[in-house]
Amino acid sequence: QGLKPIVSTESPALIFGTTTKLASDLPAAGSFLGKNKVPDLQKLFQKADGLPVHLKRGVPDKLLYRTTMALTIGGTIYCLVALYMASQPRNQ
Description:
This protein has a domain at about 35-85: Cytochrome C Oxidase, Chain J (Irregular), CATH 4.10.91. About 45% of the residues lie in helices and about 0% in strands. About 0% of the residues are buried. With about 90 residues, the protein is an all-alpha fold. Belongs to the cytochrome c oxidase VIIa family. One of its GO terms (cellular component) is respiratory chain complex IV.
């Protein structure tokens, strides 16, 4: 008889009753995408003002950067204190 396939060659039953939409059935791309902001952001990020890219958008970027730095420094100090306390013998 030869080799038979282990997996069934029949397509499985439909689980969800939704149908696939064709690309021609979808609305036009411009109707829901909005304004293209990429050219404006390219001008902003490529401006030669001496700022690093991660700080070019102003106050929100500075706030996120400083919060990240504070958490990093605080976490490092916490880890060093925990390591120091773990290295000390307990008094009984």
